[in-house]
Structure formats: structure tokens, C-alpha cells
Amino acid sequence: MVFVFYEICNLFLSMDLHFEEHNDQSLKRFEKMLKTDNVYFFDSVDFERIIHYYIDSGKINLAKKAIDLSLEQHPDTIGLRLLKAELLILEERFSEVIQLLDEIQALEPTNEEVFIQKAMLLSKQELHQESIDLLEKALEFSEENNLDVLSLIAMEYLFLEDFERALLYFRNCLEIDPADFTTLFNVVYCYDMLDQPKEAIQFLKQYIDKEPFSETAWHQLGRQYNIINDDIEALKAYDYAILIDEQFIGAYIEKAKTLESLKRYDEAIANYLLTIELDDPTAFAYLRIGSCFRELNNIEKAKEYYLKSNEQDPFLDKPLIALADLYFQKEDYQKVLFYINQLINIDDENPKYWKIYAETNLKIAFFAEAAKAFQKCLDLDDNSLGIHLALSDAYYFVGDYKGAIKALFRAEIYFHKYAELEYRLSGLYFSINSNNLGITHLQNALRINVKKYREFQSLFPVVHNSSVVKNIVQQFRNSTN
Description:
Among the domains are: 145-195; 418-481. 79% of the residues lie in helices and 0% in strands. It is built from 28 helices and no strands. It has helices at residues 2-35, 44-56, 60-73, 78-90, 94-107, 112-124, 128-141, 147-159, 163-176, 181-193, 197-210, 215-227, 231-244, 249-261, 265-278, 283-295, 299-312, 317-329, 333-346, 351-363, 367-379, 385-397, 401-414, 419-431, 435-448, 453-459, 461-464, 467-480. The longest helix is centred in the first third of the chain and has 34 residues, at 2-35. The termini are far apart. The model is unreliable at 1-22 (pLDDT under 50).
């Protein structure tokens, strides 16, 4: 029996090799024909193999030549005409496709491929429900549980964002071919879109019971545990994925991120370093290692890996932001400006960079430069209250009280009845001796939020110490007690 088994295996192997060899010879012969004026005869099966090869290789012009020659030699072969329809769909020559498919359908009314091609045509025109209706027809005329058709229906439901129906069809596909990892990813994707991590976990556990050595399933299970914040179970899942495939970089990365979440930074670093040993280093891995060292308060190592991350990808902003933030914490503002200027040179339309640039200039008392940068943030649609307030403060620090007031008026268009605005307007009006307006805005501010009076006190210490302001504050407190 063992001998017979090996004989059968050898027979299939020899048949497969013969098929590849024959296919290769047909291609060489066809391409030789194109280079000469000779015309060779090929049977329809050879033509189909040649055309499929060119389509799969993206050599569409050669595929079209093969189609034209094949139909000259075999004008009535349905398979070749269907391949022509496929090429016409790729070229979006829709009216020609419809005419050709109608001709084929008249000859073979139950040909499933005709329904599939028409469905693909409708899909390209974003008529996804109509495409599904035709694919359902194709199922009726095809073998039971036609995997390709079921997968196409699932994809059409994805286009419609009907994730529940897409999930049903993808799961059906996976039952037919459990080893299809693309379908497995699509199943998990549907659960993600439906925001059903617990259901995804249940599904993946059932799948793993049948396919315990699927490192992909274990990896996806870990991801779902991360989503529900069960990092311990996530780690177990990633460990199983790595046991099955010790080269599985994705599992090492997710494991490292999970260890970071658990504040186990030394272990996280070790796993990120493993990804660098297994494959080319990435800016992401270096960046995360730098962040782990920073959490461990090893600032020199953090800088070393942030710089490596920047060297690996000079256009990635995160390492430069991390370096800027690190030096900001150390109050080395010249270094902050060095890295932020690099970011601005890469992309001067990013308000996040201008905000850091502005805040750094505030720290070194370059108030005019800070004001320009905060204004740039507003011009780039960072319309947050903090930016408006910071712009006003920058004008105030350079003594441009009217500019500061104007900035606050612009802020009031978007932010009504905010104590921060009222306190600043009060302080500014007192500073230019418009005491009546100062009093009005101070009373407004106290009514909105008396606790934020500390900001007023900090920004306008001279005004705060005036008898007028002290009396107003005292009267307000007496009235509320």
C-alpha cells in the first residue's frame, strides 16, 4: 500500500511538472511567433493558459494579442470569448462587454461564468446589489458551494458596508477552505467593523479548535484581546503564534506593544529588538524602543533610538516630535527649535508643528515669533480655544494690547461665555485704562467660573492688586456666600 501511495504521488508530481513544462513551451512558442511573420496553431486550452498567464502578469497588451489570435483560430470557443469579456471589463469597454456576454448567454443560458462576468461589470459601475443578484444566479448554475462565487458575493456586501451579510459569506468560504488566510482576515475585519470583539474572540477560538497551528488565527486572537483590554490573554495568544512560527514579526510587534501597555518596558524592548534581528530595521521599532527607554528614564538611550528612527525614515515626524518633546522637558529650547524646524521644512502646513514652535518661542520670550506661529495655526484651521488664548497672550507680552483684544474677539465668534476669554478681556481693558469694560468683563468671568480667577491673577498681577478689582472680587464672594 505504501508503495502504491508513493507511485500515485510520483504520478501526480510528474503530471504537474509536465503541465508546467508544456505551458512554458507554449509561451515560448507563442512569443517566438510574435517576433516572426509565421503563424502557429495552438489548441484552445493552450491559448487559455497563455492568456491567463499574461493577465496574471499584468501584460494586458500581450493578453489582447493572444485573445485576437485565439479567436481567429477558435472563433466558437466559449472559454476564449469569456476571457475576451474579462479583458474588455478591465478596459471599461462596457457596451462591448454586454453585447459579447449576451451572445455567449444565448448559446449557453446556464453558463455560470457569464453571470459572474456580468456581475463584475455591474460592480465596476458601483451597482453592487445588482451584482449580488447575478452572483446568486451564478450559484444556482454552479457546483455546490462554489468558493469563488461565495467570495465575490462577500466582497460585494463589503462594498455595500453590509458587514453582517459579508461576514456570513466569508465564514461560509472559510468552512470550505479553512487554510485561506485572506478570508480569515476578512472575517475578523467584519467583526472589527461591527465592533464585536467578543464575538470575534469566540469565532477565533472555535477556528483554533479546528486549526490549532494557525499562527494567523492566534495573532488575530491576540489583537481582539487587546481591543477588550485583556492584555494578559493577548500575550498568551501572541506567544502561541510565535511558538508556531518563530519568524512571525507581526506577532513580536504586537507582543511588544502589549508589554508596553503593561509597563513591562524591558521585555517590550527585547521583543522590538527581535524584530530588527529577524528583518530589516524599521523606524517604527526604533521609535518604540526609544519610548520604552524614556519610560525607564534612560534619556540617553531614548535619544539614541529616536535618532536611529529618524535616520531610518527622515520623513517620519514621530521621532522628531519625540526628540523635541524630550528636549522641551529638559528645557533645552534651542534643541527643540532645531528639531521642530526640521519638521516645518518637511511640511509647513501642519498646525501641530507650528504649535510646538510657538510654545517653544514663548518659553524663550520670543513673543513676536510666537504670535506669528499661533496665527499660522489658526490659518491652518487649528481653531482650538488654547490657540486663540495663546495668541492673545503673546500679543499681550509684547505690549500689543489692542492686538490681544482683537484676538479674543475673534475667539468669541466660536467660544461663547468662556471664563478664560472674559478674564483676559478684563485684564487687557484695565491695562489700557478702560475700567468700565474691565469691570464688566471681570463680573462676567466671575459669574461663569470663579475658580479660574487664578489665571487672571497670574496673567495680570498688577491689575489683580488694584483696589477696584479687589473690591469687585470681594463683593462677588460675599454675594455668593
